[in-house]
Design a protein that fits this description.
alpha+beta; 53% strand
């Protein structure tokens, strides 16, 4: 991780004009969006090149209703580090790495019989159904943004982009039911359902959208 972060900073320095590769300004910010509720810090290497790092977490676990079933969504804590290149005074192109320690997880408890992978199971047999989108712990991202983090004063900023998850694995498991989920009919059904979901979702599982709106304070 440290090697990649160092490489990104080195690229930013190399992009700077000779004699100007020193921190001109700094900025701090708070944000909310698809990377959670978070904070960032930015250092300007030149007027056009800014190194930015931050973290985002989801302090609450949102509830969703899927197929009439109440489910709970657990989102990962994201860490980001990257470089922004300003093409105008406020518009920028950015890229870098996202890091996460865990994966998005959805849990649900059924109250009626469910068809899983073409086989019907009772709520007692299933227990709690757990769905996990398993992907790499560090992935690249690109974005287009508006608002300069290191500009003096207070202002808003917006990030629009995407992280590339690669080939994530959609996993289904059942916890606390009367049937084991490591072998037998339930395991076979869970694998079939997971495969069906991956086929239906297609390439969408390979990407994580980045949409962040924030308030920044520039110093310097």
């Amino acid at each position: 991780m440290l090697k990649k972060c160092s490489l990104m900073v080195a690229v930013a320095v190399a992009a700077s004009t000779p004699g100007s590769a020193h921190a001109q300004s700094i900025g701090i910010a708070g944000r909310v969006g698809t990377l959670g509720l978070g904070a960032e810090a930015a250092i300007g290497l030149t007027d056009r090149v800014v190194v930015r790092a931050g973290l985002g977490l989801t302090p609450v676990e949102p509830s969703l209703t899927l197929r009439g079933i109440e489910t709970t969504l657990e989102l990962p804590t994201w860490y980001n580090v990257g470089v922004d290149l300003y093409v105008t005074g406020a518009m920028r192109l950015g890229g870098g790495l996202l890091f996460k320690a865990d994966d998005p997880t959805l849990t649900g408890v059924f109250t009626t019989n469910q068809d899983i992978g073409g086989t019907t199971f009772t709520p007692q047999e299933i227990g709690t159904l757990v769905a996990v989108l398993d992907s790499k712990s560090q992935v690249p991202y690109v974005l287009i943004g508006f608002g300069k983090h290191t500009a003096p004063g207070i202002g808003l900023f917006l990030d629009l982009g995407v992280a590339f998850l690669g080939e994530p694995d959609f996993q289904l498991s059942a916890v606390g039911g009367t049937l084991p989920d490591d072998s037998g009919a339930l395991r076979t059904a869970l694998d079939a359902e997971a495969t069906e979901f991956e086929d239906a979702a297609g390439s969408y599982l390979k990407f994580w959208p980045i949409l962040s709106l924030g308030l920044r304070i520039g110093i310097g």
